[in-house]
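Database export, one record per block. Field names are fixed; values are copied verbatim from the stored entry.
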Amino acid sequence: MRQAFDAWKRAVTRGASTRAIAEKLDSNGPRIKRHLEESDPPVADTVIELARAYGVNPVEGLIAAGLITRSDVDRAATRDALAEVPMLQLLEEAVERERRAVRRRAPEGEQAADSEERRSRRFRRKVGEGPAE
């Protein structure tokens, strides 16, 4: 992980010295050296501060430092995105996905329609719509 972070830091700062980085962060060299070079893993707050000072996404620095994983980021992004979607839209999407799955699995004709209708009724019953079977 250390090599990945060092490479990220070099790329972001274009190889700037510890002193130059400290000036950019309005800090002092010993602090930057302790937080970004001697600490393993690097200090998260300072990684974020560095990224913001250089105008790059701090998430990439946190990943390079091994403080979070890409999987952590993906899960958080998915959860946040889903939280913004209205419940009705989520339910409509779930119903549509189930219909497609039923069509793929069921044979042609009435059996497929009957099976899809049964599943649809069960789904509506689970979400509180429509009569029970």
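Remark 1: The chain has a mean pLDDT of 86.
Remark 2: Residues 63 and 123 are 40 Å apart (CA to CA).
End of record.
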